[in-house]
Amino acid sequence: MNWLQAHHPDQVNKSTAKSCFESATICAKPLCEQNRKRCIIPLRNVYLEVTAKGKILMHKPNPSFGITYVLDIGLPLSGTSYTPAAVPAQSLFGQFLKTSIPDQGVQNYLQEGMGYTLTPYTIHQVALVLKGAGCNGKSVMVRILSALHGRVAAMDLKNLKNFGLTKLVVRSINTVTKSATITMLPPQLMKVVNMARKSERPALVLTHEQRSTLQELSASRVASAREVERAKVMLGYADGVSIPTFSADLGSVGP
User: Is the residue at 176 inside a domain?
Assistant: First the structure.
């Protein structure tokens, strides 16, 4: 499109853009299918695989894994396994945890919740609700998590209908911050969060445009496996499919 804009600006339109995209997909090499039964966390220079027994293996990045995204994190390449080290107490982050989040239980909660978002399994992802007085580390933790993901959707809790949900497409993390118009979670949304593990789930109603967008994304061969899986989950949820059912269909194991 940039070449057309520079040489034939009169040909730049929606129809031409669609034709260029379709032509590119024909010439592009098909992506390898991602094995959804393996928990791969792709970093800049190494892929970490978390096994069912909790061991973390290290792999050199390779297209055969079918990974189409990367987290903005790097690790030294040495050996075939990785053992996370404790945060140095005198480091800047260590001092932040000590002064702003001294409660070990809260630290464990944040570590588990933030860690879930780094996995490719949407079934493992949870809603972290951080509430409290100012200067207690909430904004810092959100900024750290957003920096790791890169593709962030800033949601408005009062605009979750119609096209208000389109921000979620091709995003790997969704954040909601306190503002002058939102001083607390709406009661209905708290009900949704509290009922997440109950059989009587709140309904997800999709417009025709939203369903069409998700169906196209779920069948895409150029979108990342994470994006395709997220689209399939949203469609399944809207159609009333049980969480265990579409979890099994996607090859994921519930927490």
Answer: yes
